[in-house]
Amino acid sequence: MLDGKKSIFSGMQATGTLHIGNYLGALKNWVELEDEYECFYCVVDMHSITVRQDPAELRKKARALLTLYIAAGLNPEKNCIYYQSHVSAHAELSWILSCYTYMGELNRMTQFKDKSAKHSENINAGLYTYPVLMAADILLFQSDVVPVGSDQKQHLEITRDIAERFNGIYGDVFTIPEPYIGKVGARIMSLQEPAKKMSKSDENVNGSIYLMDDPDTIIRKFKRAVTDSDNEIRYSEDKPGIKNLIDIYGAATGKSVNETEKEFAGLGYGDFKLAVGESVVSMLKPIQDRFAELSKDKEYIDSIIKNNAEKANYYANKTLRKVQKKVGFPERIR
Ligand code: TYM
């Protein structure tokens, strides 16, 4: 809760290329929530350096991601869209919270286990304390709701545990956040390996539909999507490829599983894959057009970066000062 209004925080890493899982699992829901809440949407560039990055590339990707937030429909007048690295309170609160987080809790994080297996040459302390920085992101803005895909659920749970522990010692300092995980699209799977989630770091580009893929590429990737050998469009756990395509179609068109099954009764996988591809092309077209337009307007994007960082700093510092006082740091002399 901020100034009497419920608040929202969420973020995305500026690494890799955004795919429809990121859009359907998170970004699309953000756009739908903007009227009811005070919203903060961050490009989490500090989280990105837990894996080695090329500096020029990271800067470029961070800007593209911020632009994409707007292109996807977030109104920068209503939503505070900013870079994590422009608000130093993230790092400061993260340090304090790390003193209230147990190693046993961090050891249980599945994302840490996955990432350290993938980057065995660089298992750095940042990768390990990543969830603490994420907790700081969320708690700085006294967030009531955090819209994410289902893969972030565990990070939300540890955030709540840290906040409750802190409140238990010092009184009601933090709002306890609730995850908001959409009913459709919360876990989009790879088109090539439907048992695995669609992921920015997947080396097989055919497994993911990127938000900037052109129509031909999108249709081709859907045509090649791995399914099973029967030819029935039916939503079932033992048909993970088709289940995923029905989920994507439903998220892109708003149609329920039932409606989709009826629409394609008697038709084969070829027809269905094409229809899913076309629905995704239509969903992405306006975003791609707006992205191209916005990318040309350097001054406009710069002004958003500047103004929104000021707003984010204001609210973040308010919480940080409260926390610093609670833990016993000396008062600042003005
Ligand atoms: P990131 O950048 O991996 O993903 C951004 C958002 O996309 C969702 N997502 C998916 N949803 C459905 N299907 C998929 N295949 C899929 N893949 C990703 C994620 O759940 C996420 O909502 N740690 C976070 C970034 C972060 C953050 C935060 C999020 C940092 N601080 C504070 C919320 C609040 C991450 O790496 O997301």
The CATH superfamily name of the largest domain is: HUPs
Number of strands: 5
State the order of secondary-structure elements, H for helix, E for strand: EHEHHEHHHHEHEHHHHH
Q: Percent helix among the residues?
A: 40-55%
Name the structural class: mainly alpha
Write out the distinct hetero groups bound to the structure: tryptophanyl-5'AMP
Class of the largest domain in CATH? Alpha Beta
Cα shape: globular
Strand content: 5-15%
Distance between the termini: 28 Å
| Low-confidence region ranges | none
Largest sheet: 3 strands, parallel
Q: What is the CATH T-level topology of the largest domain? A: Rossmann fold
Enumerate the strands of the largest sheet in spatial order, edge to edge or round the barrel: 1-2-3
Instruction: Count the domains.
Output: 2
**Radius of gyration over C-alpha positions, nearest whole angstrom:** 21 Å
* CATH level-two architecture of the largest domain: 3-Layer(aba) Sandwich
Total count of helical runs of at least 4 residues: 13
The residue-averaged pLDDT reads 95
